[in-house]
Amino acid sequence: MQDGTSDASMITEAEHWRSRDLAVLWHPCTQMREHPDVLPLLPVERGEGAWLVGRDGRRYLDAISSWWTNLFGHAEPRIVAAIARQAGTLEHVILAGCSHAPAVELAERLLAIAPREAGREPLAKVFYADNGSAGVEVALKMAFHWFRNRGETRRTKFVALENGYHGETLGALAVGDIPLYRRVYAPLLAEALFAPSPDAYLCEPGESPAQRAERAAAALRELLERHPGEVCALILEPRVQCAGGMRMHHPLYLRRARELCDAHGVFLIADEIAVGFGRTGTLFACEQAPAADGAAGIQPDLLCLSKGLTGGALPLAAVLATQSIYDGFLDDSRERAFLHSHSYTGNPLACAAALATLDIFAADGVIERNRATATRMAGHAAALAGHPHVADVRQAGMIVAFELARNGDRRTPFDPAARLGLRAYRGALARGVLLRPLGDVLYWMPPYCVDDDALRLLADTTRAAIDHALAEAGCA
Fold first, then answer.
1. Residues flagged as binding site for pyridoxal 5'-phosphate
2. Binding-site residue ranges for substrate
3. Where are the alpha helices (DSSP H) in 197-251?
4. What is the pLDDT of residues 109-167, one digit of tens each?
5. Which residues belong to the annotated binding site?
6. Is the CATH number of domain 366-472 3.20.20.60?
7. Packing angle of the helix pair 420-430, 452-472 (nearest 10 deg)
8. pTM
């Protein structure tokens, strides 16, 4: 019983909402034919911290932070209050020719905390967009258009990393390298150049992650040398290729990429949409690049932020650019201006949520607390490392991934037709944990408020979900 409602009636209520949903909604990243018989559909009534409460009355641990957006837990009261205050004053106004305090204050604060590198021109301007893919589009267009304004019309290509992901609009998809998303739309996409990923999972026998990073950097150098004067920018996900299977690389690659971009006059675009705001152990993953001239961290020319920017409360993206990039668009000609726009650019409600998010970082010691949580997560994850079909356990801050392969041999992955990830998803959901595996990779990316009891449930459920998937597929 809950609030005087019987379990049976709550289950009926959940089925009612499933039926209404499937009658009208088209869900993202889903083969809709699989709903509801193959792929469960969870009608959610509300969120409470790290938990989701379904209309069936059950509680589900949100182990993936609702697609990597939720930082401090659902319905975080300080963010809720900030949105409510702003809604009572100004819900939206066109940002072309108008201004408002939340957009200005947020830009000031983002620039103040952005990665900085000694001797390099700092990031100085903020352009708002609506979501991560749109933010990537902004950065790509800025890089291309800046060179065109300078008369360097041969610079029309972008370099991206194999296995990378930057969104699903056509521009963002063009610099992505995940066949599942890209293959169908390939005829519509601009041609990009793909450099080998520094992915540590791909290390040769006896090769260290740092050596793998150096080898990938050497390949990047050769690629840039083959296309002199043709490349606008290199775009990469610092430290973790998230949608590509939570594949992680040594931060040395970031240092080498920065050096190569400088050597070839190419912009570096850092896509920190998923890894920014404390996910990997530092506020921004770029900060983890090894020291050069006594200072750690690298600074990109264009920095893309979204997801956790608002604590997961509202859609918002920000692209941070240098003053030189901004100045490259100043002219009497409108064609030389950056005319990209979104109706909801710099929405006051989203900016207010983002300001509240930054307030929480400042007040709560979030990064230090996350590091302690990450240590506990590592302890729980270590128990799964000995599973006979877990080929790799890897971690970057509060992201932990488990790669499944037959007999733990990364050279013999399971047949994709076995759909172990889907089976593990169903098994975890039955135990009250929302996982959303990437192929045969299960991962943890919980809200920062996750406690020890929830972590124990997460670890126990992950093992049970793996065993369930293997047994159901006849692979145990």
1. 132-133, 271, 342-343
2. 67, 165, 307, 341, 436
3. 209-226
4. 999 999 999 999 999 999 999 999 999 999 999 999 999 999 999 999 999 999 999 99
5. 67, 132-133, 165, 271, 307, 341-343, 436
6. no
7. 130
8. 0.96
